Every structure is written in C-alpha cells, then in structure tokens.
Amino acid sequence: MKGRFLWRKKMAVGWLTIQLIIDLMVCLDIDISLTPFTNTLSIRRLVFNGHLRNRIEVVYIDIIAATIVPAMQYYSRISESV
After folding, report:
1. Residues 6+ apart with CB under 8 A from 26
2. pTM exceeds 0.85 for this model
3. 9 φ, ψ to 5°?
4. Contact (Cβ atoms closer than 8 angstroms) between residue 58 and residue 29
C-alpha cells in the first residue's frame, strides 16, 4: 500500500508542472466537465453593468481527457430577468 501511494504522488508531481501552477494562479473559479453545477457560483458573481458579455478565467478540469488547464469563458446576458 505504501509503494502504491508513492507512485501516485510521483505521478501527480510530474503532471503539475511549475508553469501550469503559475498559469492556474490567476484563475478564481473552477469548471469541471460533466457537471454544470460548478458554473453557478461564477455566473451569480458576474456583474454586467450595461455590458452584454463578461469574461472569466477558470481552472478547467476535463474528467474524460484527464487534463487541467486555465481557460477563458465568456458569458452573455440574454435578458434582464435572467
């Protein structure tokens, strides 16, 4: 069991490079593929102030591809009540 844990730890360290960690530091939100629930906090925090579109920087976690990347996401207001 101990050897198995060490193998996973080594994999994680190799997978998260220093540059990726630096790139992810500017991201405030997390978006996990396969679930819309991680977008709710980001969307509720947006303030449009007359703008039709807002941009946020997120840590995008793709479950299928097993990747973590910084990503820009754009949200548009489609009505005053939404």
Report:
1. 57, 70
2. no
3. -65, -45
4. yes
Give whole-number Cα distances, 63 to 31, 32, 57, 60, in Å: 11, 7, 19, 9
Compute, in degrees rounded to 10, the torsion defined by CA atoms 7, 8, 11, 15: -170
Residue 60: CB atoms within 10 A of its CB come to: 20
DSSP bridge partners of 31: 60
Task: Measure the CA–CA gap between 38 and 32, rounded to whole angstroms.
Answer: 6
**H or E segment and range at residue 42:** helix 40-45
- Angstrom distance (rounded) from CA 30 to CA 1: 31
Return the residue matching tokens 């997978």: 15
Amino acid at 72: M
More confidently predicted of 82 and 3? 82
Cβ(29)–Cβ(50) below 8 Å: no
